[in-house]
Design brief:
With about 325 residues, the chain is of the alpha/beta class. It has a single domain, classed as Homocysteine-binding-like domain (TIM Barrel), CATH 3.20.20. The protein is about 45% helix and about 15% strand. It has eleven helices and eight strands. An eight-stranded parallel barrel has the order 1-2-3-4-5-6-7-8, surrounded by five helices. Helix 7 links the parallel strand 5 and strand 6.
């Protein structure tokens, strides 16, 4: 059964880490092939599963070394029906892999959790389409129906929460939150933003957060920003507003390139881990409630380690 579903520890003052860019790490650093950038596909083989476990153990070691908590996101960002169809998975096989990833992370928690390093298991849900491009936007009802597939599976496992990552539009985020509310599972919503700090649809980040809160009775436990460099959304945060109090997490890119530039790149732009850590430190000084920090595209354990050390100095 879940351990923290009714009392998520990252809602306090303790700093919690996440992992970095899982897919970019596997592809560019580890030389693996990920069809459709779907990390869950590695779970098909014992060798693939062992590789995924090693990835998580690296972040657990960082969290334990620095006395941080850690959010363990399942590698299921693309383990949803449309992506599963593209990779030849039946609904039953897809459901089984979603459950298997939770079992793996629950086992790692049982083996590695300490009083100073609580480990939260989160069922990761990604967008129906691309994480950079909203494409054809669903209605919130359509999104609730589509994402309800993964939500209902996770609700019956040991996950403490659901993490909706790289959401490109408010309607889809409303759908995920509505499905989580029906299942009685806490959910965090993480929005992708462009170099101007707005969602790919052009909507202001604060307006998107308020839209989701209004439509779902504030069901998300908190919101996050992902897949952008801190310099891209600095001006958005400086505007202020009540919605800033709902923003508790950040998974930034190390690269300052736009999403279009990243899509067209043939080499990984990993940026500077220490520079990224310094940016996080300044953000945490300005927003002490920013308690969930990690990386997105192009980041790896080096960046998360630097972020952890920098945020500790900020405290």
């Amino acid at each position: 059964m879940s351990k923290y579903r009714t009392a998520l520890p990252q809602l306090g003052s303790r700093l919690f880490l996440t992992d970095g860019g899982m897919e970019t790490t596997f592809i560019f650093h580890d030389g693996l092939t990920l069809p459709a950038n779907a990390a869950f596909d590695l779970m098909r083989t014992s060798a693939g599963r062992a590789h995924v476990e090693t990835y998580y153990r690296r972040y657990i070691a960082i969290a334990r070394e620095n006395g941080n908590g850690l959010i363990l996101e399942t590698p299921t960002w693309r383990a949803s029906p449309d992506w599963g169809d593209k990779l030849g998975y039946s609904r039953e096989a897809l459901a089984a892999i979603n459950r298997e990833t939770v079992e793996m992370l629950a086992g790692l928690r049982a083996e590695n959790e300490t009083p100073t390093t609580p480990l939260v298991v989160s069922g990761c849900i990604g967008p129906r389409g691309d994480g950079y491009d909203p494409g054809q936007v669903m209605t919130s009802a359509e999104a609730a129906d589509y994402h309800g597939f993964q939500v209902s599976i996770f609700a019956e496992t040991d996950v403490d929460m659901i993490g909706a990552m790289t959401m490109t539009n408010a309607a889809e985020a409303v759908g995920v939150a509505a499905a989580a509310r029906r299942a009685g599972v806490p959910v965090s919503i993480s929005f992708t933003v462009e170099t101007d700090g707005r969602l790919p649809t052009g909507q202001d980040l604060g307006d998107a957060i308020e839209e989701v809160d209004t439509a779902t009775g504030r069901w998300p436990v908190y919101y996050m920003i992902n897949c952008a460099h801190p310099s891209h959304f600095a001006s958005t945060l400086e505007k202020g507003g009540a919605w800033l109090g709902r923003l508790r997490g950040l998974r930034a890119n190390a690269s300052k390139k736009s999403h279009k530039e990243l899509d067209e790149s043939t080499e990984l732009d990993a940026g500077d881990p220490d520079e990224l850590g310094a940016a996080y430190r300044e953000l945490r000084r300005r927003m002490p409630h920013l308690s969930v920090v990690g990386g997105c595209c192009g980041t790896d354990h080096r960046h998360v380690h630097a972020i952890s050390l920098a945020c500790r100095r900020a405290a």
